[in-house]
Amino acid sequence: MDFVLYCKLELGTAVPDYGTGSTCVLLTGVRQEDFAESAFDKGVQAYIIEADIDLSTLGFCNDEECACRTKLREVWIKLTLASDNNGQTWVYRAFAGGPPEKFNVLNIEIVSGPQLPDFPDSEDVEFEGGASTPYSLSGFEVGQGMASLVYNSSFGYLADAGAGTPIKRPAYLLTSFVSDLLALLNTRTNKFFLSHADSDHWRMLVWDGRIETRVSEFFVPSGMKPLVFFDVTVKSRTRRWSAPHVSVPLYSGQKLQIMRTAPAHPTSNNDGLILLFEDGAELGLLPGDCVYDEIVADANAHVNSLAGKSYTAIVVPHHGDAASAHGVPPSSAASKAFFSAGNHTTYLHPTLASTNAHSLAGYTNLVNKTPAYIREVPLM
């Protein structure tokens, strides 16, 4: 019997976790019975698909940066599959942790479908108050992805949970695989903040479900509706974040600021959430993929004021791409620039221009392009 999934495009040229090809098309999808607005309101079963398809058959080019990709991400793609042990399209259930199934693609077409509903707003979110122990900030070596944690002995604020080459799902699911991040989350209650909707900022979250069991609430930027967050596993705990600025008191002299960017010309990278960890006069910046020039130009005064500050630690935006070499903020004593990047042979992050620019600005660069496990990197 054919297996039909209704999908959203995530990446047209993704590095696969499975299969033998050098690239695949990364999709998220739902079954026929979940393909209705009422189902998305309640929660669906979401699937991750590494598809052996050619997007040009749909009339779209194969350039990841082309404007046509934005249009393709707005439509529904109907994927008709046939089970085949020799197939090169791999499908697994999000948050479930099981092995993938292999399929052949019988047909692919663009179809009309439901509008994804809004997530409930985050206006009434309650944060931990009166913390008894101080907070720290760490980044994590996750390959071509991003994950950071502001945490103390009992609570954590997780900014992104992405991973990518050379960290891949098959190795991650082995009982022998070491994740310092998971070990920290397992002994704390956590809230999750998605900087923006790109899959390298949430992919680890859906690999097996161990992270989501330690998260009380998930916050996604207003206007963004990643399909995986409609999964019944997390839907009831997901909120949209639209507040321009919220300051969360942590321990004495410490706070976490959460900001919703307001770019004049939104892109997939500058439109989202930025977090700032303050420990007295020391500052740690978590900008996601929003590079410094975009921070300066942002219409949210809380965001553009970040450009005039000196930082003890920065998780360098967009994995240290060429644009992140411009407008590097000033450093303070013993400042660290953490480059969360892997060995992706196309992106080649971090760029030499970015690492040089951060060095010249006084930062000590922290770079490991080939992590063998998810290692904690203390930043503050």
Tell me, rounded to a whole number, the average pLDDT: 94
Extended strand count: 20
Reading the helices and strands in chain order gives: EEHEHEEEEEEHHEHEEEEEEHHEEHEE
Can you count the helices?
A: 8
Instruction: Please state the second-level CATH architecture of the largest domain.
Output: 4-Layer Sandwich
Strand order, biggest sheet? 12-11-10-9-8-7-20
The number of distinct structural domains comes to: 2
Instruction: Categorize the overall geometry.
Output: globular
Low-confidence stretches: none
What does this structure look like?
With 380 residues, the chain is mainly beta. The chain folds into 2 domains: 3-111, no CATH class; 136-378, Metallo-beta-lactamase, Chain A. It is built from 8 helices and 20 strands. The relative contact order is 0.13.
Secondary-structure map:
Layout: E1 3-14, E2 24-31, H1 37-42, E3 47-51, H2 68-73, E4 76-83, E5 89-93, E6 101-111, E7 136-140, E8 148-151, E9 155-159, H3 169-172, H4 180-185, E10 189-193, H5 203-208, E11 215-221, E12 238-241, E13 245-249, E14 254-260, E15 273-279, E16 282-286, H6 292-297, H7 301-304, E17 311-315, E18 331-339, H8 352-360, E19 364-367, E20 376-378
Parallel strand pairs: 9-10, 10-11, 11-12, 16-17, 17-18, 18-19
Antiparallel strand pairs: 1-2, 1-4, 2-3, 3-5, 4-6, 5-6, 7-8, 7-20, 8-9, 13-14, 14-15, 15-16
